[in-house]
Amino acid sequence: MGIYPSSGLKVSYVTIVMGFNASDEKARLLLSTAWLFKVATHRLFNIVKQSPVLPASDIGWKSAFYKVVYDVIPNRRYSYGVITLVRSIYESCRQLGVDFKSIELSDWLMFQQSEKEYPPRSITLKSPSEVEVTVFSYSKESKRIALRVSTSGAYRKLLNAILREKQPYMPRIYVKSWNVRDGKLFVRGELQVAIPTDFYYKHMPRASANNGKLYGGVDVNVDRVNLVVVDGDERLRDTYTFWLEEASRKGCSRHRARSIIGMRVHEMLEYAYSHGVKVLFLENPGVLGKLKLLWVRSNDKRHENYNYGVSVFRSSVIEMIALKASLYSIEVKYVDPKGTTSSRKHDDVMRKYRLDRHTASAYLIALKGLKQL
Fold first, then answer.
1. Fewer CB atoms near the end CB (10 Å): N or C, the chain?
2. Which helix (H) or strand (E) is 367 found in, with range?
3. DSSP-assigned beta bridge partners for residue 196
4. Beta-sheet pairing, 277-283 with 214-220
C-alpha cells in the first residue's frame, strides 16, 4: 500500500492494495479495459501537449476533452479518470517547473475511477473479499464482473469500516502481469482503494497508547533519515540519524531495499515513540508522490528541481513513515519543505546548534509543523 498526498498540504490519501487473479473471459475483459484506458490516456496526452492554451479549471478540462476520451472508452467515470490522470501530470510538471512536453508515460496497464464517491459505480467494493468491476471488450461492449480479492487481517478491518461507515473512496484496477496457461489467459492484478489519511488513522489498529508530549521533525535523504525531537516551546531535545546507504546503492534489489527501509523506519518510529514524540512532521511530497503514482518518466533529468530518481526514493520513504506511524500511535502531519534546506535561517540553525545540514533541515521542518498547530 502507499500514501499519496494531494498537491495541497492538508489532504492526503492512503491506498489499500488487494491482490486478485483472473482467468479466461474475466482476464480478457480486464486486459481490454486497461488497454482502452491506456489508449485514451495516450490520445489525450498527445492532444494536451499540442494545445497552446489549456483550461484553468477541472470543469474546463472535462468539458474540453470529455468527448475525445469517451469515444475511446465509453464510460463517464473512466473517461473522467483519464482526464484527471493527464491533468494531474500537467499540474505536477507546472509546479515543478518541468517542461510537460518532455514527459512520457511509462509502460502500465490500469484503469481508474477518479471521482470520490460511495459506492463507486464502476469499481465497487462489495465486501473485503469481493469487488464488482465494469469492463469492456475490444468492441466496447460493457459488462459487470466479480473478482475475489485478498488482503491481510488488519486491512480487512479497515475495509469493513469503509463499508460500514459508507466512506467515499477512489478505486483503481492495476494489471501487474499476464500469461497463457494451457490455452487460457491468466491475469494477476491489484485493486487499489484510496481513502483519506484521517480515516485510515482513525480505524487502523494501534499497538499501544501514546502519552508523549513532544514533537518530531524528519528530513529524508537518499542515504539517511534525520530525526529531531522538540518540545512545544521549540526547544531542541534530541537528534538521531538512521542510515539508508545500503538501500540506495546500485545493484540493491527493490525487495531488499524496501526491507532495509522498512527496518530503519520502524527503528526511527520506535525511537521517536520511546522519546515522547506524539506528532511527527514530514515534508509534503505531494507533487512528486503524484508523479510516482501516475507512472511518469521524463527525459529532462538535468533540471535542478527535478532529479526524478532521488525524488521518488525520498517520496517512498516518506510514504512508509506515514503508513507505519499509526502502529506507534504517532500522528503524522505534512509541511511545505520550502526554505528548510537552503535559507539564511537554515544556516543560522546550523551555527547555533552545531548541526549538520540534514539535521538542521529536520529541525526547521519541526518548527514549521509547530506553527501549523
1. C
2. helix 357-372
3. 13
4. parallel
The model carries a pTM of 0.74
CB 242 within 8 Å of CB 220 = no
Class of residue 166 by CB neighbours under 10 A (exposed 0-12, middle 13-18, buried 19+) = exposed
* Strands 170-181 vs 142-148: parallel, antiparallel or unpaired: unpaired
Domain boundaries, the chain: 2-203, 214-372
DSSP-derived secondary structure for 45-57:
HHHHHH-SS--SS
Cα radius of gyration rounded to whole Å, the chain? 22
Going across the sheet that includes 142-148, the strands are: 123-127, 130-136, 142-148
Hey, what's the cell of 33? 479495459
For residue 27, the SS3 value is helix
Question: pLDDT tens across 285-317, in order?
Answer: 665 455 444 444 444 444 444 455 566 677 778
Q: Is the peptide bond before 119 cis (omega within 30 degrees of 0)?
A: yes
Count of helices and strands (H, E) across the chain:
11, 15
Q: What b/e readout covers 19-28, taking b as 16+ CB neighbours within 10 angstroms? A: ebebeeebbb
The amino acid sitting at 339 is G
Amino acid letter, 240: Y
* Residue-wise pLDDT tens digits, 164-182: 999 999 999 999 999 998 8
Amino acid at 293: L
Give all strands (DSSP E) within 128-235, no chain letters. 130-136, 142-148, 170-181, 184-196, 214-220, 224-230
In degrees rounded to 5, what are phi and psi of residue 72? -90, -45
Chosen CATH of 214-372 out of 3.30.420.10, 3.40.30.10, 2.60.120.10, 3.30.365.10 = 3.30.420.10
E strand or H helix at 5, and its extent?
A: strand 2-5
Residues 6+ apart with CB under 8 A from 56: none
Give how far Cα 12 sits from Cα of 26, 165, 196, Å.
33, 19, 6
Helix, strand and coil percent figures for the chain, each rounded to 5: 45, 30, 30
Q: Are 306 and 96 in contact (CB under 8 A)?
A: yes
The count of C-alpha atoms lying within 13 angstroms of the C-alpha of 160, restricted to the half-sphere facing its C-beta, is 8
